[in-house]
Design goal:
alpha+beta; four-stranded antiparallel sheet; three-stranded antiparallel sheet; 5 helices; elongated
């Protein structure tokens, strides 16, 4: 697990859904759901949430700007143009841009990425570590919590007895226990999940069920 990890996080999920008894749901049940939800978030989000280092080739275009393929950029460790190593450049992490010094867009002076085919080599690290950019990480973490809580709430709702009420969402009918035991209802969790998906940046928007 990456976004959710450790006994304190598992306890937080237990407390939220009112499943303090191990007989209701085991730690492994929670872990399995967390891992499934993390996998969906990683595959569907437009932002990566863990670090990866890559070396990529780009075509030089006689400008001093180069947009990298992946976002967000944490660091650039190597920039080679036509076999020459460049050490003087600026990296704009929030827009995955490398800019050479003294270059002004549309004006042919200052350093440029010399025009060529696959003649620019860049080694860089991209991803989203909590220490580097807590915004995306914390949004994804919150999304994973909500998705897991919803999955568990659906699973537990039909196993509870006494004081059951129900709610309908499209063609789905859910029963759940008193609101005090579970926190938010499934409908409220679903609204939160949809809102978080928009903030995290889902590649292809789809229903969250």
């Amino acid at each position: 697990m990456y976004l959710i990890n450790g006994s304190s996080d598992l306890l937080t999920i237990r407390n939220y859904i009112g499943a303090s008894d191990v007989s209701d749901v085991s730690d492994q049940d929670i872990i399995d759901l967390v891992e499934l939800n993390e996998s969906e978030i990683f595959s569907e989000s437009s932002v990566q949430f863990y670090s990866t280092t890559v070396t990529e080739l780009y075509d030089g275009d006689n400008t001093g700007q180069l947009y990298l393929n992946h976002f967000p950029v944490e660091s650039v460790s190597s920039l080679i143009v036509n076999g020459s190593t460049f050490t003087n450049y600026n990296v704009y992490k929030d827009i995955n841009l490398i800019k050479l010094p003294n270059y002004i867009y549309g004006q042919l002076y200052g350093q440029v990425f010399i025009k060529g085919l696959q003649n620019v080599s860049v080694t860089y690290t991209y991803g989203c570590l909590s220490s580097e950019d807590p915004n995306y990480f914390n949004l994804a973490r919150k999304l994973c919590f909500k998705m897991t809580e919803k999955d568990l709430l659906i699973r537990l709702s039909n196993n509870k007895s006494g004081g059951l009420v129900s709610e309908r969402l499209d063609s789905y009918q859910f029963s759940y226990g008193p609101r005090g035991a579970y926190g938010n209802s499934i409908l409220e969790l679903n609204n939160d999940i949809q809102d978080l998906w928009l903030k995290v940046g889902r590649k292809v928007m789809a229903t969250v069920f």
